[in-house]
Amino acid sequence: MTSTITYDDKSVRRFMIASIFWGIIGMLVGVVIATQLSWWQMNGKFLEWITFGAIKAEGVSFLTFGRLRPLHTNAVIFAFVGNMMFAGIYYSTQRLCKTRTASDLLSNIHFWGWQLIIVAAAITLPAGLTRSKEYAELIWPINIAVVLMWVVFAVNFFWTLIKRNEPSLYVALWFYIATIVTVAMLYIVNHLSLPTSLIHSYPIFGGLQDGLVQWWYGHNAVAFFLTTPILGIMYYFLPKAANRPVYSYRLSIIHFWSLVFIYIWAGPHHLLNTDLPRWLQMLGMLFSLMLWAPSWGGMLNGLLTLRGAWDKLRTDPVIKFFAAGVTFYGMATFEGPLLSIRPVNAISHYTDWTIGHVHSGALGWNGFMAAGLFYWLAPRLWKTKLWSTALANMHFWVGTVGILIYIAAMWCAGIMQALMLNQFAEGGTTLKYEFMETLDSIQIFYILRSFGGLLYLIGFILCAYNIWKTARSGVAHDESVEVTLLEKKQKDGMTWGESIFNDPLAHIFLAMTFAILWFFLPPHADKAALLVALLLSYKVYTAFRADKAGWTNWHERLIENYLPFTVLVFVAVAIGGAVQIIPTLIVNRAKNIEGRLQELYTPLELAGRDIYVSEGCYNCHSQMIRTLVPEVMRYGRAGVVDDYSHLGESLFDHPYQWGSKRTGPDLAREGGPIAKDPAGNPYKYMRVGKRGNDWHYNHLLDPRAITNNSNMPSYPWLFEKDTDIKSLPKKIAVQSMLGVPWPAMNQHEIRDMALVQADEIASSLVGAVTLPGQPELQGDELRKELAKKKVIALIAYIQKLGTYREVGDGKSKTIPLDPDSYRRVPADDAPAPGATKL
Amino acid sequence: MSQEPKRGHFAKEEGEIILREHEYDGIQEYDQKLPNWWLFTFYGAVVWFIVHWAVYYHTSTLKSDRQLVAEQLTAVQQAKAAELEKTLASLSNSVLVHEWATKPEVTAAGEAVYLQNCSACHAADFSATMNAGTVKVPLPGLPLNDGQWKFGGKPMDIFKLINEGSPPESTGHNGAKMQVWGQTLSPKQIAEVTAYLITKLPDEFKEIPKE
């Protein structure tokens, strides 16, 4: 029986237009924040010039780097690539299923809901409302909206699969399924929080756990939001555009399953050389290396599909963009494993090399695949020809040059800064360069980077113009086709028994179980598990050789059954995270203190911490001294040879603040002990660390008064706005629920404690500073006014950073599920020679 | 493609190229053998995983990060102690005033170190104040040009103070103490800064006799 159906191409058009619109916004913000690193005035002072002095500001809160950088990342990931992905998925899924998308209502809700979320993000992030976890900054009410919209998308998608008139699922759909399932899992777990108000929450994980969950999410946001859906889009649109068969079906199968399984494990490579337990670092590094081939499987299937169509490269901009996009994908996925090797990561992490790496993926792979997709779709969606091939070619070249300048500049900046930071001075006992000197010397690359980014943005604006003219030259058109309706029994007939209890799965599952036991079993049992795993792997190999037809037929059957397929994908992606995160959650918390237990914050310090988070300080400052010699020399205290950050130092940090990039120096040892007044009596709460309160006060007001050439923004509003003391009782109550051992305090005690500490700090500043805006205030008047200001709370927090108590650690005990504790190298237990305990 | 592809589901023989029977919305798929170099890359990474993990966890040949840092930093500290000892043996109040402070290349190096590290708290003009609009506001450090030396005014006292930071019994200036500059600066650099101060504040040191 046949029937004529009309595809819902309206949704595709909408998502595409939204993607182009948000893409330009996101890239524009990117260019702006790039210039902020070269010219601090771009953080708001420039308004003074362009309005000829009508606006007076040394800095404008919602234009600072710390607040705009999350807007840039969220806009390009979720708004630009998100909408692009939805356009590609809605277009191809309907055609691959030979049916119209299941529900127009859900499509509408999905589209408008997603755009509303983006608008909400564009308002809240510059306002300083943030959770501070990268690509997961949005506040909790928006998180819930994102989850709801994702569910709407998933229901609409799977419902379409159920209604499909094509028994078997094409490889593009496998990637879409993996995307939907995995992003849901990652997003929900990494956003688990307890709200303290409508606009603020604390994540339920703290310290190491929070870091681990964050990068399990962060890395796999790259994997399952920026990679798998785009691979799916490549598998549909690239063979269509090239009019060539896909290179290899079996490569599709192998690289799909290995990619989705392995990707999840690679998250800890964002925390290499920190004090993250070594076994997690090993898993992160080694799985990243194993990821190289599966990633390149996708590149091969893309590029080799173009064999026989290379002549089109000269004439067809779509093929140009696809070929370059897939090539950049290959480059980025080669660079990724390289950067996950621990010694290489020591250089790339916290420097611009990582930023360059991300952008070769984002600009080269995502941006160019998007452009190829749009140029291919537009003529079909408006039933016309592309308005200008020449303009599209121009976009291609301007964009390519932009990317190359961008990533080359970032390579130079990252590697050069890292080498300078690690350079010993003559004599080999001190470091040669101050942090600021290294920043000065990479300025030229920062300027080049802004230029490269600007070129890329210009290219994209050309694309927008071209698509707009194309749309204007045609009429919106929804394609209709004749399809043969499929009967119910022709699809989805596999029973659960058939899909789960079968040779291929049983073999692979067993081998994998023993391989995982190898990580965790106590000494000797682990080696036995390895042996069993190796024997079972050989068994897998022989069983496959013996029954190739049986195994391939099982997979052929599996892809005719969307639900078992989806369940197996979920199992494959769930294993890695479970193995890495669950042991860390249940047994390793006590062990991970490592002899140092964080001093609890006072209420005022907590308020200061929330200001630190809200201003996005973590975008440029880390609080993590890695286990690397130059790093301990630079940031550790004199004479303490083990003064890298120990995990216990951030145990109660919700959210953790280890950071991922150092545009400024590390702050892990910025704090200090309770200070003494001039008479020699200790203050009640006031601490002073490396630098005095007045140093921080002046520095936050005008960083360049302290450090020439500093590119840190000025924070004048911290000297105008009052600290939010009122919300502290609620915040402290929530933290107590999360396991932070706050002493029992009622709201008056909390308030009084905060006021006393603020007064101590303010008193220490009277005579040394004036309040901008009220320079006439002196003495007690000044003290009272100062004590209320945000800057005082922030100073209180900074002076607390990295303070801890020594506690006995169970280092020499073996702990279940902790491979590191089995590794009994005697020297690990003994304190290092010359280690001074403070 | 030199060969004419056959239709079928899977390639079964060596070298055979199959164009799969099934088409998806007009998209066809070959079923080509996986490239050997690709397979070996994959297998190699898996083997490397097993070998690397086994060597680290089943043998004692590789050191942990903590061990490595402790060893290397201990060596650096020992070298630093030796360097300091050597420098101190050659230094005295007289040597600093009459030898180091009289060499322009030494004081120029000292000036560079001062401007890089010290002027943020003590000011380039040693007054420990900065201009905020029309008024002078104090900087975090103590002034160096007021003739007062809280922890001793002899060149060697100054050297020690810079090298070791504020003494432990000090309450600091509003709680803030000077950091241990010996961690960042070499003994030679500290002597150079001291020499620079001597040339800039000659009145303070004019009574040091030449020995």
Write structural notes for this entry.
The complex is a heterodimer of chains A (838) and B (211). In chain A, the strands form 4 sheets. In chain A, strands 1-4 form a two-stranded antiparallel ribbon. Chain A has a two-stranded antiparallel sheet with strand order 2-3. In chain A, strands 5-8 form a two-stranded antiparallel ribbon. In chain A, helix 13 packs parallel to helix 16 (389-422). Chain A is globular, with a radius of gyration of 28 Å. With 838 residues, chain A is mainly alpha-helical. Chain A has 33 helices and 8 strands. Chain A has 3 domains: 2-478, Cytochrome C Oxidase, Chain A (Up-down Bundle), CATH 1.20.210; 496-592; 601-820, Cytochrome c-like domain (Cytochrome Bc1 Complex, Chain D, domain 2), CATH 1.10.760. In chain B, 48% of the residues lie in helices and 7% in strands. The model of chain B has no long low-confidence stretch (mean pLDDT 87). In chain B, strand 3 and strand 4 (135-138) form a beta hairpin. The longest helix of chain B has 26 residues, at 65-90. Chain B has 2 domains: 6-58, no CATH class; 74-205, Cytochrome Bc1 Complex, Chain D, domain 2 (Orthogonal Bundle), CATH 1.10.760.10. With 211 residues, chain B is mainly alpha-helical. In chain B, helix 4 crosses helix 6 (187-200) and helix 5 (155-164) crosses helix 6 (187-200). Chain B has helices spanning 36-58, 65-90, 93-98, 104-122, 155-164, 187-200, 202-205, and strands spanning 6-8, 18-20, 129-132, 135-138. At the A-B interface, helix 3, helix 8, helix 9, helix 10 and helix 11 of A face helix 1, helix 2, helix 4 and strand 4 of B.
